Write a sequence for this structure.
């Protein structure tokens, strides 16, 4: 096993551990997503784009979901990246038009378990698409009621942030993940399931 693969496994394991601990200690995803409130920033186009850039990164469920796509083994990476970005934005638009999906945060946590099943080959790759739409839906919840310009800036920041994370996942990380043994892949999938369960429990009790 090369040093690159070992480093990748270490980073993946650390990411899973951090996500699991965050969920377990009650850091609810909704709390992590309000960058503007945390920093005391006014709602304007600048804060909107900054919030959009930060949102997928400071939400452990979203970050883990996007980075773990490296383990899914997507081919035609450019097409998948475009499809997932469009799906995420469509989900965000739906969240703005029809907010209030019951147990949305819990469903997002459970989507990590779905992703684990895709990693194991127990579900088809297309299962990732509705999960991405669900993540986009939840990412719109923190900007309900915003005026047009800050909202547009937020969606732009969100598009850039998710695009960069997908680029990392579907290029650099996937090239390393392709060399992971089946046994290691199963352990990483188990880590996703653990993070999924911890996140769902956190959403339930939060």
């Amino acid at each position: 096993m090369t040093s690159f693969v070992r480093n990748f496994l270490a980073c993946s394991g650390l990411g899973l551990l951090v996500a699991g601990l965050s969920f377990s200690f009650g850091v609810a995803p909704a709390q992590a997503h309000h960058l503007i409130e945390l920093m005391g920033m006014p709602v304007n186009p600048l804060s909107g784009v900054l919030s959009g850039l930060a949102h997928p990164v400071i939400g452990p469920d979203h970050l883990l979901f996007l980075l773990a796509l490296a383990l899914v083994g997507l081919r035609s990476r450019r097409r998948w990246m475009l499809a997932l970005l469009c799906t995420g934005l469509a989900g965000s638009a739906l969240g703005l038009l029809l907010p209030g999906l019951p147990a949305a945060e819990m469903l997002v946590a459970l989507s990590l378990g779905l992703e684990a099943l895709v990693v194991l080959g127990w579900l088809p790759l297309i299962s990732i698409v509705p999960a991405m739409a669900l993540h986009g839906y939840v990412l719109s919840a923190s900007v309900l009621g915003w005026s047009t310009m800050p909202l547009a800036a937020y969606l732009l920041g969100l598009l850039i942030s998710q695009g960069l994370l997908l680029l990392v996942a579907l290029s650099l990380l996937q090239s390393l993940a392709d060399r992971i043994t089946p046994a290691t892949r199963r352990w990483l999938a188990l880590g996703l399931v653990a993070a999924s369960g911890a996140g769902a429990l956190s959403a339930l009790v939060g």
Observations:
- The chain has a mean pLDDT of 82.
